[in-house]
Amino acid sequence: MSFASDIYTLMTSDSTLNAAVDGIYYQIVPDNPDLDEVNIVYTFSLTDSIDILEKNNEIDIYSLSVSIVAQDTAELDTVSGHVRTLLDNYDSTAFRDIKLETTEQELEGEREQFVKTLNYKIMYQN
């Protein structure tokens, strides 16, 4: 498996999170979503690789940004809580460490929606 497929599976397989949102998307929300929808948009990038003692292996360091988009701040907080619970408590052999680094919240004025972004650092070993 790859980081892209593993993070997609992780983000889309949680029933609690799926029940709380209208869509989970990689990089961009489809054109003209309903303003009443609650959506998650996530992006990631490889930031570093660390050689480890195991033969021919390394740990990759990824940054993951998870943005929750909603008109209601209560929904925003509920969904961000689900995301935090999912990522903060996730345990697997591939995802060695998932750490929340920063949280940002802003009002997207043109669409009058709130956006809360959770920025994570992930140590991943394939």
Topology of helices and strands:
Blueprint: H1 3-12, H2 15-20, E1 23-26, E2 39-51, E3 58-70, H3 73-88, E4 95-108, E5 113-124
Parallel strand pairs: 1-2
Antiparallel strand pairs: 2-3, 3-5, 4-5
Q: How does the helix and strand content classify structurally?
A: alpha+beta
What is the beta-strand fraction? 35-45%
The secondary-structure element order is HHEEEHEE
Widest sheet, order of strands: 1-2-3-5-4
* CATH homologous superfamily classification: Phage tail protein-like
Q: Determine the CATH topology.
A: STM4215-like
CATH architectural label: 2-Layer Sandwich
**Number of extended strands:** 5
| Total DSSP helices | 3
Q: Which spans have pLDDT < 50 for at least 5 consecutive residues? A: none
- Average of pLDDT: 90
- As a whole number of angstroms, the C-alpha radius of gyration is 15 Å
| Head-to-tail CA distance between termini | 7 Å
- Structurally, the number of domains stands at 1
Tell me the major beta sheet: 5 strands, mixed
Q: Indicate the CATH class.
A: Alpha Beta
Share of residues in helices: 25-40%
Q: Outline, from the CA principal axes?
A: elongated
How would you describe this protein?
It is elongated, with a radius of gyration of 15 Å. A hairpin with a 4-residue loop joins strand 4 (95-108) and strand 5 (113-124). It is of the alpha+beta class and 126 residues long. The chain is built from three helices and five strands. It has one domain: STM4215-like.
